[in-house]
């Protein structure tokens, strides 16, 4: 048997370092080029702070690689409970920034607890699944998994951070799939998300989807209960979304949701759709090879709001063009595929769930962030993993990857504790 340290996956670390490096380049461009003259003094220090957080994340990576399998399994539930207590503490003592009360202050250190909660939740769910003997997941166990994910999500919603809470909601079908939930039930749980999106984009299409999905479930299963659930979940979502858009939400809330469908429209382009209009202008002007480092007119004119955080992808698109953006997406694809492969090789459900949770968090962030930068999705306000400015997010994303690598290195030990 090879020594555990010989199993270190250097490819994942290389991909992590390259993505973090690209993020530093983009952040430097927005804070040290001509755009710096238009920024607040605090924003100008984003690059320096991100560099410090990258060093801290690197140290956490090293420590995580040295910890044994037993540590992660024994501490999984305590870490989960600890993050729940921190989320409650944020509600009581947290600092509000940009309308969200999501930060705790530890002297000069500002920590976004909701980012740390992603690590705690992935660990907690993985341990719950890991201690269960191999068998098909029943509905009661599935509800327990859902409850473990919903609890931090609801606490984050109370912090007025709907974007981060959405990540937890989206993790539910991923966790259930890798936990062994039957495919039919999984499809029923995913259907509401598709129905809601269609209800926003094209309501007749949403109604057609609900009808066809219900008919499909009946033809597939011939089970009246599952068919009823399919109709209730998909059709009910269309009804609720329609009522929300016509009777419940305020006009400004509706505009924020609908603006992505046509951000350049007269009623959106100067308010709810402004971010996406400027982002698409930046990305589109980059053409194939981009305008060059620190040469982007949209970026250096500071036309794109939050361009070192939520809209960092527009900086890459403008200054490095289509091929630069493609390079970043291929790096993400490589990291996601690699972590998935490592997870599949661990066999034990604890390791598999940690890997799938990490991949799920990355994938949700990438899909939503790039989607809102290109006006495929509404502006939700979550960072692009490893690239966007944000120390807490960088630390959490690094920790997730590091735990996967640590478990993979010692995967032979996993069989001792459980299965």
Describe this protein's structure:
It is a single chain. Strands 1-2-3 form a 3-stranded antiparallel beta sheet. The protein is mainly alpha-helical. It has one domain (4-414). The chain contains 17 helices and 3 strands. Helix 4 crosses helix 6, helix 5 runs parallel beside helix 7 (162-179) and helix 9 runs antiparallel to helix 10 (224-248).
Features:
17 helices; three-stranded antiparallel β-sheet; globular; 419 residues; mainly alpha
Summary of the model, kept short:
By secondary structure, the protein is mainly alpha-helical. It is built from 17 helices and three strands.
Mean pLDDT: 89
Beta content:
under 5%
Estimate the helix proportion, in percent.
over 70%
Radius of gyration: 22 Å
Structural domain tally:
1
Order of helices and strands: HHHHEEEHHHHHHHHHHHHH
* Strand line-up in the sheet with most strands: 1-2-3
Kindly report how far apart the N and C termini lie: 20 Å
Query: What about the largest sheet?
Result: 3 strands, antiparallel
Low-confidence stretches: none
Helix and strand composition category: mainly alpha
Quick one: how many beta strands?
3
- Net shape: globular
Number of helices: 17
